[in-house]
Amino acid sequence: MKIALEIAVTSAAGARIARDGGADRIELCSALELGGVTPSNALVEAVSAVGLPAQVLIRCRPGDFVYDADEIALMAGEIRSVIAAGAAGVVIGALTSAGTLDLEAMRQLIDAAGAAADITLHRAIDQSKDPAGTAAQAQSVGITRILTSGGAATALAGAEAIDEIAAAVPGMEVMAGAGVQPNDIARLAQAGVAAVHLSAKRPAPRRNGGAWVSLGVAGSDTYYVTDPAIVAAARSAIDNLP
Predict the structure, then answer these.
(1) Which CATH number applies to 4-204+220-239?
(2) Which of 34, 82, 150, 241 is most deeply packed, by most CB within 10 A?
């Protein structure tokens, strides 16, 4: 089975690097430094024009994945907007305070996307009480792709749990993500994944001409850009799998 390569990007330039480096699709977000939030429609349009299928992260704020009714309504609106702007699919997730998948919220978000869109359950699964059980819940509401680290800090550390998740949901595309490096791909392929997800990022050089003044977010003295060498190495690692 061929493993797909998904690169998380935050710009049209990153999308072009991913395309030229052999990625199969991209996940688009803003504020990767915060774990990613929903990008603007203008950015979705610019990235969609690059030509790779763009899976757009829908996350209205940083923090946990337990959302109130206003936040769910907002994300449903964001979904409709990004699909209209050219997104091939959306990347979503919502949990209850008990750590289970919020099925009602997920149904609202899936309905907003429409039948033609790809739907990925993001790493909310890794903050759930039972990742394998959450994957089964996701399958029951029609999600066909899951992004997971197996509940661990990195996908490599969670490889055994990812294998269990993949076994629990035959027919779903299970994608390993979180701290993935090209050298990890061979091991992750053994976990039964259908895709790997990585940001392939490096810090952008600081270009401010004066003193740095904090704007309120710890560690916000830089941002990340897509590194073509990492994308190429990931593509090579997949192409050289036995």
Answers:
(1) 3.20.20.380
(2) 82
pLDDT (tens digit per residue) in 13-57:
999 999 999 999 999 999 998 899 999 999 999 999 999 999 999
Contacts 24+ apart (CB under 8 A), 101-104: 101/125, 101/128, 101/134, 101/137, 101/138, 101/141, 102/66, 102/67, 103/137, 103/140, 103/141
27 near 15, Cβ under 8 Å?
A: no
What are the residues whose beta carbons fall under 8 Å from the beta carbon of 118, sequence distance 6 or more? 53, 55, 88, 89, 90, 144, 145
Domain residue spans of the chain: 4-204+220-239
- For 125-163, the three-class secondary structure string (H helix, E strand, C coil) is HHHCCCHHHHHHHHHHCCCCEEEECCCCCCCCCCHHHHH
What is this structure's pTM?
0.94
